[in-house]
Amino acid sequence: MFDFITTWIAAGGAFAVAALMFIENVFPPIPSELVMPLAGYNAARGLSSPLLIFLGGVVGSVAGAWLWYEIGRRLGPERLTEWVDRHGRWLTLDRHSIEQALDWFDRHGAAAVFFGRMIPTIRTLISVPAGLQGMPLGRFLIYTTAGSMIWVGALFGAGYLLESQYERVQSWLNPVTNGIIVAIVGLYLWRVFRGKGRRKRTG
């Protein structure tokens, strides 16, 4: 799997990274913690431009955050909650997840958007209350981009530095990557079939 992902990123370059980071913000089983280090690893090996790969990661991440912002802005609290009740199962979301993000946003405002982009799980959901509460789009994009650049840069840098240690890690890197992907997909399927996000029946 490690070889497959790095080859795909090498072939698609910044566009592949941007697409993966966009999807990562929408579909939980694809983690940025795996995508960007592998992208950095590829860049260090000279298979792609470090700057373009980094920018692709940031653009994809911000685009995914903007999508959730728009969903929150257009649906509003009531319709969003109803939508999560109906479809949240497939995104492993429920009312409590939305309420948590709203509460965090209410308490921290713009700082929640900035720091939220660096916290797993929260980094996607924090865009929703920003849209629900009518945060100006320009302000949202500034804080989201700043937070995303730090998060993407840290992950990219970790992968970039890994290349110098390739001789030491090549024998176990692929099985470890496979294990991470299997664990992530397994956790996602468990949460889906457990029914997280489905409307609770009353009476």
From TrEMBL:
Chief site of localization: membrane
Disulfide bond found in the keyword field: no
Classification via Pfam families: VTT_dom
Cellular component, GO, one term: plasma membrane
Transmembrane segments: 7-27, 47-69, 140-160, 172-193
Membrane topology field: Multi-pass membrane protein
Domain annotation VTT: ranges: 30-160
This protein's UniProt keywords: Cell membrane, Membrane, Transmembrane, Transmembrane helix
UniProt-annotated location(s): Cell membrane
PANTHER family linked to this entry: ALKALINE PHOSPHATASE LIKE PROTEIN, UNDECAPRENYL PHOSPHATE TRANSPORTER A
Name listed for the protein in its UniProt record: DedA family protein
Source taxonomy: Bacteria, Pseudomonadati, Pseudomonadota, Alphaproteobacteria, Rhodobacterales
